[in-house]
Amino acid sequence: MNKVVYCPNCGKPLQVPAEIHGDDYFICPFCNSEFANPSKVIRKKPNYSSTNNISFTKNPSYWVIGMAIGVIILIMGSLPNNKKSSNRNSAPVSESIYYTNDGYFFATSKDVFDRMMECMMHNDVDAMNRLTVAGVVMTLPANTEVFLLKAGIGTVVIRLKGETLQLWTTSEAIHQ
Questions:
Q1: What mean pLDDT do residues 6-21 have?
Q2: Which of 6, 89, 109, 112 is least surrounded by CB atoms within 10 angstroms?
Q3: Separation CA 56–CA 60 (nearest Å)
């Protein structure tokens, strides 16, 4: 009689023929992942003795989670303040004065910005040159006054003073 197990990788139900019920591992025909036979898995009882406390050095998943939280906090701290203050003496975002930093690129749309960042991550100078020649990626002029329109994680949308075009760039490209 066939037995139904679910692939832990893709979650699809698998009909396991009776002749392979005793196998140690199965291979999912949908995603090709290999996983242990659920009926053969031996679950150990947890040892809650005081000498077996959770250790961040022994479990790498805690390091990954900790690093991810740290990176998010770091990025959030580097974003320009995008909240309108309730204090009447402080200006809202659209009235705050920001200036560009030297040596940063901008893109003319979100899609172009994503392509630009991909080219930069792959260090693809030829592709960056093509985007520049096409006029959709350019270098920000240094110390130019800009208006902050939107701020996201690592990304800002700005408008140069006196211009109407919205520009996408990194949050490090501007300062107050």
A1: 80
A2: 89
A3: 7
